[in-house]
């Protein structure tokens, strides 16, 4: 059985962020090697500004209050936790180029690479998840 968990983050909403970082931190906390490939809107999850204002689905605003009442960590806190646990963050070079973004637009500590970079990690990962 593999000791790797590979995650593709291609969506950029609050719910997507919680799914990605909850799975990543849980896996890393159980001593799994974890990498997340951020592409398209998923790049918002690690963008210095965007990560602080991720959209909620319409009509779900009350859930933000539920997160606060339940003391659920914020997305920036989960990002920090994931990094502290050794989760590898890979920003998609192609998507960054298309969107006119550079590594400086993102949090410190990310790697920038293409699909091949992620696939090299993911080739023997189990599970591989997409959000």
From TrEMBL:
Family annotation (Pfam families): DrsE_2
Entry's transmembrane regions: none
Protein name: Sulfur reduction protein DsrE
Lineage: superkingdom: Bacteria
PANTHER family: CONSERVED WITHIN P. AEROPHILUM, PEROXIREDOXIN FAMILY PROTEIN
InterPro entries from the UniProt entry: DsrE2-like, DsrEFH-like
Source organism per UniProt: Ureibacillus endophyticus
């Amino acid at each position: 059985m593999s000791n790797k968990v590979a995650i593709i983050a291609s969506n950029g909403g609050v719910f997507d962020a919680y799914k990605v970082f909850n799975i990543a931190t849980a896996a890393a906390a159980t001593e799994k090697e974890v990498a997340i490939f951020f592409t398209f809107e998923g790049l918002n999850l690690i963008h210095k500004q965007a990560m602080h204002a991720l959209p909620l689905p319409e009509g779900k605003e009350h859930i933000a209050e539920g997160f606060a009442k339940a003391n659920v960590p914020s997305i920036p806190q989960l990002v920090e936790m994931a990094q502290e646990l050794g989760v590898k963050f890979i920003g998609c070079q192609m998507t960054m180029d298309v969107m006119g973004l550079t590594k400086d637009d993102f949090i410190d500590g990310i790697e920038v690479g293409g699909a091949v970079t992620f696939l090299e990690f993911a080739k023997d990962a189990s599970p591989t998840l997409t959000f």
